[in-house]
Design a protein that fits this description.
The chain is mainly alpha-helical and about 140 residues long. It has helices spanning about 5-30, 45-50, 55-75, 80-105, 105-110, 110-135.
């Protein structure tokens, strides 16, 4: 089904594409060892690595959702809304899990990048749900 998205919606589709690229870049940097805040000799290292290693597949799922949403919005297709909402919800969920772990384990003290990642997930997901949710919620 076709839908008429605004120019701002199309700009946000490009933001979704950029977000997908940033997520892919983050994991490339992570696996290349560029973004790790702990040294292998740190007491917390192995536990933190096990936790963070659980995120790549879920983040790849978000990349897929973001790209399908962006493509749908740019092509003025209604499925873009569904995938934007799904991506927004997934971002919030993963952001909350990550932030909870980071707060409980003092990660933010050693890894300021985690604050940026968590804020981007939580704010980006919330924004996507609110922005595109207006198409779903009509009073």
């Amino acid at each position: 089904m076709k839908i008429e998205y605004s120019n701002k919606d199309h700009y946000l589709a490009y933001v979704e594409i950029i977000g997908a690229i940033v997520l892919i870049g983050f994991w490339i940097g992570w696996f290349a060892g560029i973004l790790k805040s702990y040294a292998p000799t740190d007491e917390f290292y192995s536990f933190y690595m096990i936790f963070e290693s659980s995120f790549p597949i879920a983040d790849f799922w978000i990349v897929i959702l973001l790209l399908i949403s962006a493509f749908g919005i740019l092509k003025n297709r209604s499925y873009g809304l569904f995938f934007a909402a799904a991506a927004g919800g997934a971002l919030i969920f993963l952001g909350l899990i990550d932030a909870t772990f980071n707060i409980q384990n003092g990660v933010y003290q050693h890894d300021p990048l985690s604050i940026i990642v968590n804020l981007a997930s939580l704010l980006g997901g919330t924004f996507a749900l609110i922005w595109f949710g207006r198409y779903f919620i009509k009073e």
